[in-house]
Amino acid sequence: MESYKCPICGNTDSHSIGCLNGKPYCRRCISFKGEEVEHRPSYPKKASIHLEYELSPEQKKLSDKLVDNY
């Protein structure tokens, strides 16, 4: 396999690089624990939309959940 650099942690150690379905992946990051990944702060995202109509109660409830999760 040609040299591969993990886009998450920067790993280039061939012993920590696997291959699945012809695509390389980093075994250090596969568990998503992030021990070797530097902290990247997450910033709140702002979103808004204006609808020309009212949502049903069920739609409004789902919309509120989506906004909370976003």
Strand content: 5-15%
Annotation field: number of helices: 1
Q: Whole-number radius of gyration?
A: 20 Å
In angstroms, what separates the terminal alpha carbons? 38 Å
Taken in chain order, the helices and strands follow as: EEH
* Overall shape: elongated
Overall pLDDT: 79
Number of strands: 2
Could you list the spans in which at least 5 consecutive residues all have pLDDT below 50? none
The secondary-structure class comes to alpha+beta
Strand line-up across the major sheet:
1-2
Sheet having the most strands: 2 strands, antiparallel
Can you tell me about this structure?
The protein is of the alpha+beta class and 70 residues long. Helices cover 19% and strands 11% of the residues. 1% of the residues are buried. A two-stranded antiparallel ribbon has the order 1-2. Strand 1 and strand 2 form a beta hairpin.
What is shown here, in short?
The protein has 70 residues and is of the alpha+beta class.
